[in-house]
Each structure stands twice: as C-alpha cells, then as structure tokens.
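Lab manual, section 2.4: Encoding a predicted structure.

Procedure: take the sequence of the chain (346 residues), apply the prediction step described in section 2.3, and record the output as structure tokens. A sample record is shown.
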Amino acid sequence: MKLVLLLALTAAQWQALPVPSKASFRGLSAVDDNIVWVSGTEGTVLLSTDAGKSWGALKVPKADDLDFRGIRAFDATTAILMSSGPAEKGQARVYRTTDAGKSWKLVLEEKTKGAFFDAVAFLDTKHGILLGDPVEGHFMVYITADGGETWQRVAPEKLPASLPNEGAFAASNSCLAVEGTNDAWFATGGGSVARIFRSTNLGESWTVYNTPIQPTNASTGIFSLVFQGALHGMAVGGDYQKPDGVFPNPLVANDGGRAWHSIGQPQGRFLSSVAVAPGAAHMPGTFFAAGPSGIFSLSGIGQWVQRSDLAVNVLVFPTAKTGWAAGPKGVIARWNIEPAAGLQKP
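Recorded output:
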C-alpha cells in the first residue's frame, strides 16, 4: 500500500503592525515567534517580546545619524547591531547589548577610508561573520568566536581578489548567509560578473564562483541569498535603481554554490531579500522573496505567487508558522503560517 502525505499552507495574510517609528528598516532578526528585533535609519532599534503587539524603542548613545542595516539577536536580551555607511565618516560600527538594549557597547569601529559594512551573521551564539566592501582589492571580512565581544579581520590574502567595481549590497543584511556549523557564503554585484564567495571553515578562508549574472552598472547584482543545508541555495537581486526592470532571478544551486541557474522570476522585478519558511513535520521549507513590488512565495510546482503588495526590504522566518517583514516608512509586518492538517490516502 502506498501512502501519500499531503500538506498545504493556509491562505494567511501579511499584516502590517502599528509601529512607533517611520524609519526605513533593513535590519531584522526574529529569535522565535514572539521575540523580534528591528533596526534602521536615524539610529532606530525596536524590540518586541510579545509577537509585535507592542514595541520598545531602544536608544544607542550618539548614534542618531547612523543607519543600522544589520542586526542579529540571540534572545530577548543579547543582540549585535551593525551600522552601514562610509567608515571615514564614522559610520562603520558594530555594537553589542546584553541587557535588552538598555546599554550598548561599541565592539568594532572600522576607520579605513573606503570601508563600508554590508552584513553580519552568526552560525551559533559564539561564531559570527561580518562582511564589508573591498578595500585595496579584497573584501573586508571579520570573524568572532565570543559572541561578538571581539572581532578579528581575516587576512586579505585568505580571500580571492575582488573585481574592478565589485561590491556587496547592504539592502537587507542577507547578502551574507550561514548554514550549519561551518558554512558561509556572500554574494556580489557591480563588477563584470556577479559572484558567490564560500567558506567552509567559519569564515577563515574563502573560494569564489561565478554566476550567470553580468551586471551592467554598480547598482546591479545579487542582493540576497539563503541556503537549506550545505548544498541547496537560492539567490535574488536585480538593479535597485530600476526596480521594475527585467532581471533573471532567482538563481538556484544544488552543489554548495559552485554552479547557479535561473528558475524564473516573480514578474521580473528587483528583489532585495530571500528567505526560507521552515517546513512542518520534516518537510522541505518554502522559499519567499521580497522587494519594492511585494512579497512572493515559490509554489510546489515552481511558480511564484504574490502574497502581498507591501513594499519591504527584508524577510525572516523564525519557525514553521511565523514570518516577519520590514521595510521603508516604518513598515513591519507579520504572517502567521498555520500548517493544514495532513491527509493520508492509500
């Protein structure tokens, strides 16, 4: 007797939540279904511990002019916060809090001219990676082994040389992805070809692979990538100056990021973020992608379905039933994803 398990998702809707801010949000970290940290322009940091019903505004001293484009939280009290902007203007900084944002410690400030932080990610509560744009021909990568208390720059020779005009995009804190206990990837654009850099040793050394994307200007390339396991990845992007222009994305890889191919595009529009909603009952997760034109999900038959027309910058899914999105003008949205009952047939 052959058993077939049928699972589906309910037609839940993204719900925009009341938020005490009109900042543009690009940093988003959801610890679980209730605890979520958000960060953005004008030094804005928000924290909710009740699933978005209420928000606390957290003050970072002397940071009102910073754009906090990356945040990674471990629980309701501890988080790492990254600002993006020219280092020579004092805008390349990393802060750490262990008391739910009551106080912040400046743990890294890069002052090298041309430095610009793009993304921060953690493989666990101790090991993290910070990505910055190239300076003198190599991307700037920093690693930590103590939860972000201290950071060390990876020697430039441990990374392949950057291409002319190549850089990463600080659009959603997701041009850098981590998976498992050792693997990390980051995506690029702006050069003659968009590339994927990969590390299999916690960011200590890197290799690089080309993708089919050939940017025509500095605003085009891969903006976000995510992996399910060490092999299966998806990347999205486009030209942020032409959000409605046709762009061949998303890209997928099934070999750890060595080779990429296109699987079609949600109406051919610019996408700044891609994420995976974990599957229920050990089933594969569902890919979601988002940008100025809305939020899309990939169906089981390989078609992209628009789930919302909210303009957002970033998506995250902490569990199989809850998703979060954040974007410009103080937009924070939540989606409760409830699995439908399983059905077994002979």
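Check your result against the sample. Confidence is low (pLDDT under 50) at residues 1-11, 339-346.
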